[in-house]
Prior knowledge:
Layout: E1 9-13, H1 17-30, E2 35-40, H2 43-53, E3 57-61, H3 69-77, E4 89-94, H4 102-105, E5 110-113, H5 118-134, H6 146-157, E6 168-173, E7 176-181, E8 187-190, E9 195-198, E10 203-206, H7 210-216, E11 222-226, E12 229-232, E13 236-241, E14 247-251, E15 254-259
Parallel strand pairs: 1-2, 1-3, 3-4, 4-5
Antiparallel strand pairs: 6-7, 8-9, 8-12, 9-10, 11-12, 13-14, 14-15
Amino acid sequence: MNPPTAACRAVLADDERLMREQLRTRLAEVWPELQIVGEARNGMEAVDLVAQHHPEVVFLDIRMPGMTGVEAAKQIAQMEVGADDLLPEIVFITAYDQYAVEAFEQGVADYVLKPAERERLQVTVERIRRRLAARGTPDEESAPPLQQLLHQLAARMNPGTTQAPLKWIQATVGQSIQMIPVDDVLFFISDEKYTRVQTASVEALIRKPIKELIDEVDPEAFWQIHRSTLVNVKAIAGVTRDFRGRQIVSVKGHPEKLEVSRSYTGLFKGM
């Protein structure tokens, strides 16, 4: 995913063809240089199109058959991108004003109400363009982690189905299995097969990827700072920049330094 240019690319996802056509028409009016590189009828098609085209913006209907927009956004947020690439900005499309929660106004994502009105869409476009232009700069706005918003939306869409945050991790330590309190975990780091669970005194392994852990831990307690890294907010000692300008997180009680990928630099404003 390339840095934003005047000709940004977008994917539209809505199971209603007329809604896609209406949004495409309105976008042409308020953002004429935007290139619509793909249209999807469901969440799975949207994920595939994003993987294929690497757009800067994705418009996702919040309710679609099969995979919802929220579920699609979770998969998009976990896509593997290069060191110099960025995940797309997410804009949710909804016919239900109750889903326009406060988190939308905090800058982590935006929303468009059906039917898309020119004036409101213009506000969304201006916000998206500002965020794209500010990415990776010292002026980039800080924003709550995306997983907090997605967790909040999932709970509102499916009340009563959201599980309580994970409290214990059953992990392999040497030749034994230990029960580790999640509150004691400093950070999680995944590779291809395993996730390392690091506390101040124990290093353990579990066969569970970060994309699954994100749905199980408290999103306010653990922030994703990289596709493969979750860090306990209380364990963050500070954030600095290395000689290449990358943000580096120092962890309380552990010497390891954690790199923040470009897609998550907005978490730490002004660094």
